[in-house]
Amino acid sequence: MKDFEFWRIGWQYFLPDGDVVDLEIIEDKYPSIELKSETDDGLRALLNKFNIKEEDVITGPSVFAVRGILIG
Questions:
Q1: What 3-state DSSP class applies to 4?
Q2: Does the predicted TM-score (pTM) go above 0.85?
Q3: Is 66 exposed, middle or buried (0-12, 13-18, 19+ CB in 10 A)?
Q4: Which pLDDT value is given to residue 24?
Q5: Domain total for the chain?
């Protein structure tokens, strides 16, 4: 039995420096971007590259954040 589930569609991009960017649309309504890097400096560089403010970043298990967005 599942407590919560959602669907998404997305695209994954591998950058030349080894970082990864995932673009997704959750439940055909909510766009999201996931940034992956081996280092904290790499993550900060990605945030700057895509002009993302640190206060807009979700940390921890994203499924909890998505549940909050979809259910309230």
A1: coil
A2: no
A3: buried
A4: 95
A5: 1
